[in-house]
Structures are given as C-alpha cells and as structure tokens.
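Listing S7. Sequence submitted for prediction.
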Amino acid sequence: MYRILLVDDEILVRDAIRENIDWKAMDCELVGDCDNGKAAAEFVQTHPVDIVLTDILMPYMDGMELSCFLHENYPDIVIVIFSGFGEFEYAKKAIQYDVSEYMLKPVTAMELRAVIEKMKKKVDQRREEKQKLERLTQTSENYQKNAIVIRSKALQAFVDNTKTREESLEELSGLGISLEAACYRVAVFDLDLYSDSMQLTSEKRQESALMSFVLFNVSDEIVSREKAGVAYQEGNNKVCVLFMGNRTREFSEKIMKICEMIQTKLKELMALEVSIGVGSWARTQQELLVSHELADKAIGYRYLLGGSLLIDMEEHPVENIRYSDDLMEKLSTALKAGKKENADSVLDRIAAEIKAARVDKSRACVYLQQIIRAADDTCEDMVPDSTLLSERETLLRRVTEQKSFDSAFALVKDHVGKIFQVLSDANSSSGQRQARLALDYIQKNYMDPDLSLNSICSYLNISTSYFSTIFKDLTGETFTEVLIRTRMEKAKELLENTTMKNYEIAEKVGFADPHYFGISFKKMTGCTPTEYAREKRK
C-alpha cells in the first residue's frame, strides 16, 4: 500500500482528485489532504507518507518551501508538483529539492493515475535501496566483529613484507591458514563505481566499503570452493586474492577463469563491475610484493582502457611509447593543408599508441597536452589573433580532471576540430591556402640553397605569375624578400647563440656563396655578420 498526501489550497481541486481516483484499485491510500504547506509539513511529522502531491502557490508555506522541507527532513518521500502555466518554469527550479515530477494544471484523472503509477515505482526503488543499505550496514557491523579482519591484516602483512616470513606463517597458522605452496600470484580487485574514492562523499565512501565487503564474500566463496588460494580485504575498498599452486599453464588459465567467475557473480548480485589485475608469479616473499605492485598497476590502466578490466600482467608487459615528433608534424601539416580526415587519422593513431604503451594517467595527460600545444602552435602560426588560443589553460586543466582517457581525448579532439575550422575559415579561398602553404614550405626548406620561386611553384602546382600575386596579397612581400628575411632571422639566431664561423652559418641558412651572404646580411641589418655577433655576444 502506498500512502499519498494531497496539498492544495483550492478545496474543489482536492475534492475532485479525491473523488475521481480509485485509490484502492491502485493499491494506494489517500492518508490526508491539506490546504497549505505548513499543515502538510506538520502532517508528515506524525503520519507515514510515501508520495506528496502539492500545488505551488499556497498561503503560509508554498509548494517550493514544502519541497525544501521534505528534501531536508524526509528524503524518502517522493514529491510531485502541480503548477499553473505561468509557474511552470519556476517549478522546474525545484529540481534542487529532488522533485520527481511536474504536472501542468489542469490535471486530468488519467494523467494523475499515470504519474502515480510512475511514482509507485520510484517509491519501490527507494525502499529497495534503503533495505539494501540496511542489510549491508548490518553485515558490515557483524563483519567488524569477526576474525575476517584479523585474517585480512595477517595476509596483507605477509604479501607486503611488513613482517618476516616466519612471523607471518606462525600468525596465519594460528588462524588456521596454511600458505605452503610452490608458487604464488596476487590479484587485486577494485570496484569501478568507486574508483575515484578521493572525491567520494562520506556516505559514498561508507557504501563503497560495504560493497567491497560483498566483493570479498563473493571472491572468498569462489576461491575457497576452487581450492585455489585465499582472499583478503585491503583497506576499505580493495580485495586481494593470494593464489597458490604450481606455475603451469593449466593453473594460469584456472586463475583467469576464477577471476571471470567473480566478475560475473558480482554483476548478477549487485549489478556492479569490478576491474582485476593479476600480478606476476612469485616464489619468495619479496617477489610477492612485486606481484602485488604489478597487479595494482594493472588496475591503474582503467583510466586508459575503461572499466571491467581483467589483465594478466604476465601476458601484457608494459610497452614503450612509439609515437614521436613526426606524428605531431603530420598533425600540423594536415591542419595547414585543410585535410581533416588526415588530422583525425593522426589523432587516432596517437591515442592507440598511448593505450598500447600502458602509460599511467599523468604521462597520458602529458601526451594529450603535447597535442594541444602542437595544434595551438599551428593555429598561432597561421591565425595569430584566434580567440581559441586564450582557452588553452582552461582546456589543459579540464583534460587533467577527466576520469577516463577517452573523455580527456574527446576534449582534445574537439579542440583540434575547432582549430581546423578556424584555419579553414582563414583559408576560405584556395589562393590564401596556397600562400600559407608556401610560407610553411619556406620555414621548412629555407636551408636549401636551391629553393627558388620555380621550385615552390612546382611544389604547389601553380604558375609563377599567379603565385607571385597571391603571395604578395597575403604577405605584402615578394617570395625572394620573405626567403631572404627568413634566412637572415635564422642567421641572427646562430650568430647570437653559437660560435659557428660565418661560412658555416651561410651554408646552414641556404647561402651557397659566403660572400653573397655577407653582402645580404649587411644590406638587411646595417652591419657585417662578424660585427653583429661581436655586439650580441658581449
């Protein structure tokens, strides 16, 4: 039976609702009706209520104030708000008070019956959650009083090497546990839902600990039944299994099957997913610690690979990251050339290689930040005044805050897409795009003494006369002027920061004739290369 309270200051509305609903047929009871929120607040303090149907505008205490009161004091009560057309947007603000439904007046009996049926399901859900939490709380309290805690601490001490082997074995023997085995492996289990435990509320942390105990019970039952080892709790959230047996392919396969059984059972019982890392084989107590560290490290791959993991660290060694600056250069080239499919392909390749490398979150974020900077630098080269460049710091922070690599990578890919659009807009005409590609080509090939107007036109596949026009329109300079200026700027850098000879610098920046380099340098700067270097190196 579902107990319903009706709150409306219009008696005709209350009478109509009371008389036009067959409450008994709906397995409901209209336990009361009130003409204002104040009376309703007093009513629920002395009468059990499951659902409150309330108007908004009422004397003494309106529907919003009543919703706030119920949310803070009786969170299990489901709230439905009636509102007139002009109040509807106002009513939506009640979402902060966990209002479940809004109904626009006038309300028909059919509409109300449909909403009540919907709210009954919500009441059932809240009852089940409350009962589940009460059962788990009771189980947890009993758990704290028994020897499982002691056993878990003793097993953890053995694996973590905090006691000598003799001390640990003696302690565990007193608890009826024998650890005599040819080899060991440690598996670490962690519930995906509570993986970010540092950011959980106190209530969620308690719930996490309770669910972790359910995971422990499931693991302990299956591992014991299979006679494969012992389970123990590690802290409040993780569960570990110390597998014991011979180092054979058959036992390795059995370990993975047991882990899969635990994942399946937990999904069936609590609709929860768990990630599992299985460490390396160990013969000594010191190797046990390494096995545990590897298993725990596997759990960290959840950021890269998503949840419900089962990783055997013997089968999945850590790889080295393979992508290099070459991929960043390809990304920049694709953006400049207006080839989005190429840019997306490069991004997907980078993401795949980061995942394959099994890097931790901090390193993955560094690689993502490198992509952002490479894309931003490309944008700055071609459209220096883009507003996108001012968003970098905010974006870098948001990328770091993401709980998964996929969500962080989606932010990066979206940002690169925006940059592509900015560059596409800037290169709206083919002439502008070709002129910008020419500038990029000069930057990359200025050191080639054979670089000429003809060679760059051949690269762009356009005529020299057309190129000269579009290039001058974009830059305000001729090709030769830009090339000489670029070479001189590079020469200045070398003169300032190195001890190279003038002829070496001339060759480095694309001058086959050192004498001509000296003449060109003085014409542009007003001094010889030697004089410039002497002045700058003081």
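Caption to Listing S7: primary sequence and predicted structure tokens for the chain studied. The mean pLDDT is 85. The chain is about 60% helix and 10% strand.
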